[in-house]
Structure formats: structure tokens, C-alpha cells
From TrEMBL:
Residues 293-314 are annotated as: Disordered. CDD domains: MFS_Mch1p_like. Belongs to the major facilitator superfamily. One of its GO terms (molecular function) is transmembrane transporter activity. Keywords: Membrane, Transmembrane, Transmembrane helix, Transport, Vacuole. The lineage of its organism: Eukaryota, Fungi, Dikarya, Ascomycota, Pezizomycotina. GO terms for cellular component: fungal-type vacuole membrane. Pfam families: MFS_1. PANTHER family: TRANSPORTER MCH1-RELATED, UNCHARACTERIZED NODULIN-LIKE PROTEIN. This is Probable transporter MCH1. It is found in: Vacuole membrane. The chain crosses the membrane at residues 53-79, 91-114, 121-142, 162-189, 240-262, 345-366, 439-462, 468-496, 503-524, 562-580. Gene3D superfamilies: MFS general substrate transporter like domains.
């Protein structure tokens, strides 16, 4: 029998190789040794009870944040007041709305990346000051500008074109960024705390629905409680100054509460599961976690060593360093995988073509309603109001979001894990029961959205404001469902541990869509307002102001834009369908969706 050899580094190589090849199991057991070794059953029970309490408190805080964060969706409540009292042109009114929309969507990818790594609490803290500063500034600017106009100082567009308009843009940039931060903190909290198992759809649908509901209740508070009183004692338009001040205080308080109450529970379990899944698929190189390994070179930094200086895998330097290393490792790998998946770009483009028209409709709802009542026609009773239809959009949007969350949980096939789907999760299990894909739901509600836009474009509601509920109801349901289903689909296909980053990347696209359609609507509106009256006896196309043509009446003001929006939604449906059934799409790859 050969004599035993002395132990050398070469002899230990197989051991290190086995550690690398099963990095996830070694790391998971090592991390758990810091938490569970020596714990009694009673201690573990208390820990679970404590985690459940924190999870529930975080849920209610996230729900409160979502219920308040959607204040920007009530822009139509006061957009026409900017036009009437501050003498903003239609382009300028849309400029304020577009500023809010761009700042709401463009930072989402950065904020999502930050949220996935630092947690939702810092985002809520940031939102508190963005909202407080934005609405506080807007309130002061509106009061001063309105006073100047009343005194005649702003005649001729001095207010609308001066420094106060630029400052108003800045105020709504802050509001938009605050909306993004507060909404994302709520979504990430619910997705990660309750996104396990087959109820992930409802876990996301609840805060998303609450966000849609926020516009409804805030519009009612503004139009009924914070409104101006006419000489006869009846309610007039919303008191913009008091409404902005109310929103500044409310959202600041909610943001501060979220700073202390929004927490992710057992996040490391998500990371450990993702490590196992991605290593099993071969997408991650576990050699990055090789004990004692460092790499130096020009422009390089030393890699973090999760083990002690001697390279002993049984003696960790810090469990916190280890978990942070794994978390960064997994999230970066999943982000790369997400960005290199061509179906993600098809989904994002489809989202762009769907949501852009919906955003433009919501931002211009008030001025669209004004075009329904030409001054030469006498109407019986009070005309319909923007507040009424903001509420209708909010209600239908909320119902659609909750409905899609529940129905997709019940009817849509679900993968067995909540991590990124590399290959088919289990197509055989999907066929054992009746199921309806989440993509089918998305396409159905996109058709509803396009139907609402087409009804408006057709002129069916012109001179019949009482029919406008058909438009606001269809658009609200379609828009709300699309906004609910898109992040649900993202979590089902690409997992929940990186949901902030993934959803943030896709959510950037509506900013461009909203901007483009807002500018198109404004251009058509202004062109018709300055054009001669139609020769068909249908009444004037504009109302001539002594300074400039600001107001437009009739179908010519909006029909071309909304026909084009209808076509845009149909293009979006084609892109989504291609991502699902096209070459190397989700269906052909066996991805459960």
C-alpha cells in the first residue's frame, strides 16, 4: 500500500472544486448557521411570528403609499384651469403634464435598481421630500400667478410665458419623480413579501389597483371638499391652491411613514433560491465565490473574499458580507439576462404603444370634455365634468386591476418557482387543467382600450357629454389592466428578486409615448383652434380670445389624434403577440406565462 502523501494545496483542489460546484448549498448552509444554530423551537416560532407581523405592517404601509401616490393622475382636474386662469396655451398645459410624465417614468430604472439593492424605505423617504417640495412649490406659484392675472399683470401671456411657467415645470418634475419613488417602493415591497406561489398576481394587483384608486378619491376630495364656492352657494372648480397644499402635506406624511414601515422579509431566501436556479442553468460562474481568490490587474480591484484570510470555507469573515456578495452577484446576472432577452424588448415596445395613448387621454381628459360643448349650442342641465370622469377612470381601472390579478391567479398557468424561467418550468402540468394565458388577458384589455379611443374618435359623444362615460370606462379598464398585467408578466417570466430593476426598465418607455401623443394632441388642437370655422354649419371650431386662440370645439379638435392612438394600440397587440408566439417566443421556449 502506498504511503500517504503530505497534504498540499494541489491535494485540496478537489475539495475546493466541490465547494465551487455546489456553491449555493455551501453558502446557504453557512448563512443559515448564523441564524439557526442553537435556536430552540420556541425561538424559531417567535421569529416566524415576528416576520409575519413585519410583513403585514409593510403590506398596509405599501397599500397606503399606493393609495396616495397616484395624485398626478388627477391632472385633468385642474389642467383646464391652468388654461383658463393662467392663460396657458394647450401646448403649455401639455408641457406641464409631459414634464410630470417624463420625470415619473424615466428615473424608474435607476430607482428600481437602487430599491432592489437598498430596499424600499429609502425610496419612500425620498418621495416624501419630492412630493412636499413639488406640490408646495406648485401651490405658491399658482397663487401668485392667479393673483397677477386677476390684477391684469399677466395679460398677453406674461405669466404663461415667464419664469413662473418654468418654475411650474420644475415643480411637476419633482411631483413625477416622487410618484415614481413612492409607487415603486410599494410595488417592490408587495412583490417580494407576497410574490411566492400562485397568488403573485393578486399580490401585485392590490397595490397597483390602489394606485389607480388614488386618482378617484383625490379627485372627489378636490372637487367636493377643496372646491371654490359660487355666489349661489354651489360648488365650482377645484381650489387649486388648497388642493396642492393638501397633497403636499398628505404625501410628505405618507412618505415618512413608509420610511419606517416598509421592509422586505426573508429576502435572502429569494437570493438563495435564485443562486441555485441560475447555477443549475449554467448562467452563473460560481468561481467568483472561490475561497481566497483575488484578481488584480490594470484598472481592476480586489474581489471580495467571503471567507477568512486563510481561505478556510468553514470560517466566514462576515455573514453580512457573504449575503451582500450573493445578492449583488445574482441581481447583476439577472439584469444582464433580462436585457439580452429579445422578447423583453418586444414587451417593452408593446407597452410603449399601449400606455402612451392612455396617458395622453388621461392628461387631456379635461380639455377633451370642453370640446364637446360648443358655445353656440344650448344644453339642458349641467355639462359633464372632468372630476366625474377622472373618478370613472379610477373606478374602472381599479376593478380591472383587481379582476386581472384574481383571474390570472385562478386561470393562468404558473411556474413552480418564483425565479427567472430559463426553460420550460413544467409544460405538462400546465396542460392538466384548463388555463388562459396572462398574455390573452393583456390582449383582451388592450382591445378594450382601443375601443374606447375609437368611440371618442368616431364623434359618437360629440354634443352628447352624457355618453362620455363609455369612453372613460373603456379606456380606464384597458389602461388599468395593461398596467397591472405587464409587471405581473415580468415577475412570472423573469422572477421577483429583481422586479424593481426589470419593471423600471420597461416602465421607462411610456414616458416617450406620453410625450409624443401629448404633443400630437396639442398640435392638432392648436391648429384647429386657429383655423376658420367649418363650412358645414357645425358651429365654430374655436373661441377667439382677444390675445390668441386658446380654445377649440368640435370633433376636428381631437378625432385625428385618437384614430392614430387606436392604431397605435393595435400595433402594440401585434408586438406582444410576436413575443408570445413568434420565433423563439415564450410559447416556443416553453416559458409558462
Amino acid at each position: 500500500m502506498a504511503a500517504p502523501k503530505a497534504s498540499t494545496a494541489a491535494d485540496q483542489a478537489p475539495l475546493l472544486h466541490s465547494v465551487d460546484s455546489s456553491a449555493s448549498s455551501v453558502l446557504s448552509s453557512a448563512a443559515s448557521s448564523y441564524d439557526d444554530d442553537g435556536d430552540s423551537f420556541e425561538t424559531r416560532r417567535q421569529r416566524r411570528a415576528s416576520a409575519s407581523l413585519v410583513r403585514n405592517i409593510s403590506f398596509f404601509s405599501a397599500l397606503l403609499s399606493a393609495l396616495c401616490a397616484g395624485s398626478v393622475t388627477v391632472f385633468s382636474l385642474y389642467g383646464h384651469i391652468f388654461q383658463e386662469r393662467l392663460r396657458y396655451s394647450q401646448f403649455q398645459v401639455n408641457g406641464v403634464a409631459i414634464a410630470a410624465s417624463i420625470s415619473m417614468y424615466l428615473p424608474v430604472s435607476f430607482l428600481g435598481y437602487f430599491c432592489d439593492r437598498a430596499g424600499p424605505a429609502p425610496l419612500s423617504f425620498l418621495a416624501a421630500f419630492l412630493f412636499g417640495g413639488g406640490y408646495g412649490l406648485a401651490a405658491g406659484l399658482y397663487r401668485r400667478a392667479a393673483s397677477d392675472m386677476a390684477a391684469g399683470a399677466g395679460r398677453g401671456g406674461a405669466v404663461a410665458g415667464g419664469w413662473s411657467y418654468t418654475a411650474m415645470i420644475v415643480a411637476f418634475v419633482l411631483v413625477g419623480a416622487g410618484t415614481s419613488a413612492m409607487y415603486l417602493s410599494a410595488i417592490a415591497t408587495c412583490a417580494k413579501n407576497f410574490g411566492k406561489g400562485k397568488h403573485r398576481g393578486l399580490a401585485l394587483a392590490v397595490p397597483i389597483a390602489a394606485f389607480g384608486l388614488s386618482g378617484m378619491w383625490q379627485s372627489q376630495v378636490g372637487s367636493r371638499l377643496l372646491c371654490e364656492r359660487l355666489p349661489d352657494g354651489s360648488r365650482g372648480d377645484v381650489d387649486v391652491f388648497r388642493f396642492f397644499l393638501f397633497l403636499a402635506i398628505l404625501l410628505f406624511v405618507v412618505g415618512i411613514l413608509g420610511t419606517f414601515m416598509l421592509r422586505i422579509v426573508d429576502e435572502q431566501d429569494l437570493i438563495d433560491g435564485a443562486v441555485e436556479e441560475l447555477e443549475r442553468s449554467g448562467l452563473l460562474d460560481s468561481s467568483i465565490l472561490t475561497p481566497g481568490r483575488t484578481e488584480r490587474g490594470y484598472g481592476a480591484t480586489e474581489r471580495s473574499n467571503p471567507f477568512n484570510e486563510a481561505g478556510d470555507p468553514n470560517v466566514m469573515e462576515s455573514s453580512e458580507d457573504l449575503e451582500n456578495l450573493k445578492k449583488t452577484w445574482v441581481l447583476n446576472a439577472e439584469t444582464k439576462r433580462f436585457l439580452t432577452d429579445h422578447t423583453m424588448w418586444l414587451l417593452a415596445l408593446g407597452f410603449f404603444f399601449m400606455v402612451g395613448p392612455g396617458e395622453a387621454f388621461l392628461n387631456n381628459l379635461g380639455t377633451v370634455i370642453k370640446t364637446l360643448y360648443p358655445p353656440t349650442v344650448n344644453f339642458q342641465g349641467a355639462p359633464t365634468s372632468a372630476a366625474t370622469h377622472v373618478s370613472i377612470v379610477g373606478i374602472t381601472s381599479t376593478v380591472a386591476r383587481l379582476l386581472t390579478g384574481c383571474l390570472t391567479d385562478l386561470l393562468a398557468p404558473s411556474p413552480q418557482a418564483r425565479h427567472m424561467q430559463i426553460t420550460s418550468s413544467s409544460p405538462v402540468l400546465s396542460r392538466l387543467r384548463f388555463s388562459v394565458s396572462r398574455v390573452t388577458f393583456l390582449l383582451f384589455f388592450a382591445v378594450l382600450l382601443s375601443a374606447g379611443l375609437a368611440v371618442l374618435a368616431s364623434g359618437l359623444v360629440q354634443n352628447h357629454g352624457e355618453r362620455f362615460w363609455i369612453v372613460s370606462g373603456l379606456v380606464g379598464a384597458g389602461y388599468g389592466a395593461v398596467f397591472s398585467l405587464t409587471p405581473i408578466i415580468i415577475t412570472v417570466i423573469w422572477g421577483v428578486e429583481n422586479v424593481g430593476t426589470n419593471w423600471g426598465i420597461v416602465a421607462m418607455f411610456p414616458a416617450l409615448g406620453s410625450t409624443i401623443w401629448g404633443l400630437i394632441y396639442s398640435a392638432v388642437y392648436q391648429a384647429v383652434a386657429r383655423s376658420p370655422a367649418p363650412a358645414d354649419g357645425g358651429g365654430p371650431s374655436s373661441s377667439h380670445d382677444e390675445d390668441e386662440d386658446l380654445f377649440c370645439y368640435g370633433t376636428r379638435c381631437y378625432a385625428p389624434t385618437f384614430w392614430a392612438m387606436t392604431l397605435s394600440v393595435w400595433i402594440a397587440c401585434g408586438l406582444i403577440l410576436w413575443a408570445w408566439k413568434g420565433k423563439n417566443g415564450w410559447s416556443r421556449r416553453g416559458v409558462v406565462v
